[in-house]
Amino acid sequence: MDMVEYTWTDGLNKDFEHFYQLTEAYYSKLVGGICNRKGFLPYNISNDIPDVLIAYMNGTPIGCAGFKEYSQTDAEIKRVWVQPEFRGKHIASDMMSQIENKIKNKGYKRAVLQTREIMTDAIRLYEKCGYLRVDNYPPYDHLDGAICFAKRL
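Above: the chain's sequence. Below: its structure in token form.
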């Protein structure tokens, strides 16, 4: 059985940049084009994410997740992604657990994240990991289609 290996890096990592481009295209297609995401774009810049976890299988990058400071007490999880052919193997759950541990070890009290109603797989993952839906926090409180989740760590 192939083992998944995880590596911590940052938003400048070339594998993370590749996933960023994949997710941008996926999200744009999902909502009917980039024109329907323009309000979200300034808050999703890959190199603004200082803590990134990349999942590899046999040296091939297969998933990512990252986080950045949102406030003194909260860290915002960004870009949770697993390549479609590797889904269903608990990779996303493993990454969420590792992200949460690192967030907690850095002294944050809560993890927050934003997604969209249409992202049903993501919502299932977050709820399975113990996240609860919360009122949209800025800047997503003024963006149509955004929904937010949080978890005390």
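Residues 112 and 150 are 4 Å apart (CA to CA).
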